[in-house]
Design goal:
The chain has no helices and nine strands. By secondary structure, the protein is an all-beta fold. The strands form two sheets. Strands 3, 6, 7, 8 and 9 form a five-stranded antiparallel beta sheet that branches. It has a four-stranded antiparallel beta sheet with strand order 1-2-5-4, with no helix packed on it.
């Protein structure tokens, strides 16, 4: 799941990436152009509501490209992205 919310009194959007707590099993990080495609920078943390999530902030009007990196080097996309092209999920922050 991907949630977007405006940051109060700024021109930024907070994007929260969320997955079920144990699906897939093991650690998962979100990797994208917002963190120079560096694995382990934004690791999804377990939440009390049965999910795990992490948030990033980006300027309104920008486009984010990302993928998830799971245990064992397994890359996967989020079906909630605005679109998925040949190498990443894409989110438009309007």
């Amino acid at each position: 799941m991907i949630r977007r919310s405006r940051v109060v009194k700024s021109n930024e959007v907070k994007v929260t990436f969320a997955l079920p707590q144990d699906n897939p099993a093991g650690p998962v990080s979100v990797v994208g152009d917002f963190n120079a495609w560096t694995p382990g920078t934004h690791v999804l943390a377990k939440r009390a509501n049965g999910t795990r999530s992490v948030s990033v902030t980006a300027p309104a009007g920008s486009t984010l490209r990302f993928r998830y990196l799971g245990d064992g080097g397994r890359w996967f996309d989020d079906p909630d992205a605005d679109r998925v092209d040949h190498d990443a999920g894409v989110i438009d922050l309007t």
